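From the shared-data thread, chain only:
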Amino acid sequence: MSYPRARRAARRSAHAKSAAFHLKLRQALAYYPPNHRDAETLWFWDTLAPYGFLPLANARVRRAAATALIDAVLAHYSRVYQDRSVRTFLVTFAWDAGLTPITEPVLDMEAMERLVRRQLERLGLNAVCAFDLDVFSKPNDGEEVRHLHMHVHALCWTRDPTFQPHTTAAKLREGRAFPNRIGAPSVKFRSRAESAAQFAAFERACRKRVRAKPVTASPNIARDRSRRDQTALSIANLAQYMSKDTAVSKNRYKGRDGNMRMRPEARRFTFKIALRFAEIFSEISPFDAVFGVGAEASLVTADYSARIRAWERRNRESGEPCNERELKAAWIRYFIRHANLGLSPCIIRQRRHTLANVASAK
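Structure, as tokens:
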């Protein structure tokens, strides 16, 4: 089953978010123009499709990555559609390791991946995981600089009927592995129903799916779909949520229950923030941003990677090469040119860096 309706809806949502980010980035680069030498290098939204290094800052790469993840997750869904023992959750790991100032960000994505992987393996879960980046609307109490927050979303599933997601999340939050000083829960499991309650798009998509005209003569098919752990629309929306661009900041506030909550704010996603996001994602490829835990999930991420590689091979016929070192050098020159922004180059440690060092040592 190909689920064309779910695929189209998720792709439209992902592409719209990418367009919103690149509109802000285009305005930022017009206001703070690069030198003539680097203008074409930093022109991420209207270039030929790249090959070689694939930076997620490039609009075409971001859309290709979102499409690949949506398609790979839907392919997985088609394999487990009839298995009623499968329970699926969206898990968010948001802890202090990903908290860093916007002026001089230092991100150890390799250590973050290692910790999430170890905890999910211990729980016996399959998971497709993706890194995401947020920025807070205001500085933390007692500080003057706003902070970025790298975190991990995981599409997890299990066939264990005794697995208790909320109890598990509470235990992880109480442990020492995921400290959090921003007030929001550092680990949170959300079912399909809870995701719909938090994200209006999920709720609308699920409601439309249930109201859709049945494709067979069975009068119970719509009701049967509504009771499923996930539908094609909900699982596709989860995939686009994990692979999205963002053009909003997160405003923290205390809810009526006393817990810290987040509210999106577009106006606080400034030119300076857009430039910082673009620079960070200039160093992260689709292969760096997604990883799998467990045998089944590894098949999904392998499918995702294969789709990206096939897309990159097609670009070699009519696209243009992209060099990671040249891109990083362009951003260094850009921040020197616009020193009034107060931004230093980011420092990111990734799994492929360590693997490359090991290979070169041999």
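Residues 210 and 224 are 9 Å apart (CA to CA).
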